[in-house]
Amino acid sequence: MAGSSDRPVASGAPLQAMQFMVERRTSGGLPVGPGEAITPAEALAAYTTGSAYACRVEDELGSLAAGKLADLVVLSDDPRRVAGSRIGQIEVLATAVAGQLVHGHWPGS
Asked: What is the C-alpha to C-alpha distance for residues 2 and 61, in angstroms, rounded to an integer?
């Protein structure tokens, strides 16, 4: 399964979308297809390996491995370990595209 957004109709913020995938609740707290909820680990996979596979670029993107592009983010917390209701509030500390820092700073630097 691939993670995506309805941007520009929706915010396009992946962590907020992951929170919705886990909680299956509107911003007002109403349930939306609660039987379709997935785990935080499954939501993270949808936005990484799942999206790369859906775009047929899994040999270049989607996971950290030798020979792949180093497109990654450093987060302030682990979305697999925080309460589902907090996933959307996790801060993006740094972003790298093809291994080059384009936002924030590397932890410890």
From this structure: 13
Angle, alpha carbons 104-107-109 (nearest 5°): 85
pLDDT computed for residue 11 by the predictor: 82
Read off the pLDDT of residues 4-28 as tens digits, 9 standing for 90 and up. Answer: 877 787 788 999 999 999 999 988 8
> Using one digit for the tens of pLDDT, what is the confidence trace for 40-55?
999 999 999 999 999 9
User: Is-contact 95 106, C-beta < 8 A?
Assistant: no
- Using H for helix, E for strand and C for coil, what is the string for the chain? CCCCCCCCCCCCCHHHHHHHHHHCECCCCCECCHHHCCCHHHHHHHHHHHHHHHCCCCCCCCCCCCCCCCCEEEECCCCCCCCHHHHHHCCEEEEEECCEEEEECCCCC
Give the whole-angstrom CA distance, residue 13 versus residue 1.
17
φ and ψ of 44, to 5 deg: -65, -45
Say how far apart CA 2 and CA 45 lie, in whole Å: 8
